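Per reviewer request, we include the raw input and output of the structure prediction for the construct analysed in the revised manuscript.
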Amino acid sequence: MSLAVVRLFLLPALLASTLLVSSCVQKPAESKNAETQSAAESRPPAPLEEVVLFPVKVEGKYGYIDKEGKIVIQPKFAAASRFAEGLAGVQNDTGKWGFIDGSGSYRIQPAFEAVQFFSEGLAAVMQGEQYGFIDSNGKMVIEPKFAGAKGFKDGFATVVRAEKMANTVVQTSGFIDKQGKYLVELLSDAGGFSEGLAAARWMGQYFSYIDTSGKKVIEPGPGANRHFQRAGEFSEGLAPVALQQTGRWGYINRRGEIVISPKFGMAQSFSEGRAAVVDRSGKWGYIDSSGKMVIQPKFSEAAAFLNGLAQVGLDGTKIGYIDQDGKYVWAPRS
């Protein structure tokens, strides 16, 4: 979940070798240069240094603070997302999104209608009305052709394909690898991979969990406790699920067994020992892995902990950051 910020290579070896062979036959003196250039073009971009900064809104503009609440990148963006793999998506005043590094300088110029954060070296971006994937140099490595997309984890990304049938547009979900090849497709819904598993729903069925080979490892039924109406990502060995029978959220382990009772109105995946949940008051708080409420429900919105802090909202308009004790590092403000 996002709080007023952002709500989601290699050249073919045959081509490279063909170019190299052609160079050797026709221009022997350039063989070494061709080989060097081919290797450079096929090499993934070097990973950037991780940046631990957090987006905040000050007087209508977004900048970034450190863990102590000090502003490090001055508020100057129309919108901003969190840093991941050394880059953060930001929106300029024309509505276009690009990526900055930890100094606040553009690493990838604003050219996209929407962006998601980097994961496993790639980021989903919207160009026109379609999503594709770029690397950290801004090179499009999977062409925009999806109606929706979510970043790579465990080598796979979740994508949505829209196809017109008669007078209706039908959307289906699936998982692709980094060459754009489908692992599983034609799903009615799908989550993202995490810890080797992903939620997947076939037409007319409840959610299952599949592994990275596409095999179902947690299947629906036969009991009502395995009829998952909705399902989230595994993290720290647990995944949030909503039961069809009650609509309430709880948590399962990797065997599909419920280990935290379904009693929440909404629930997120665990991160850094905490998970955001909605109790019967309609407010967000945080539980630990035993299901105990460790940060009392009082927030209108809440995000996962990352690098010791979690972004929270009050009154639907004010955004702040808390530490794992629930103390404010950045007091909520509009």
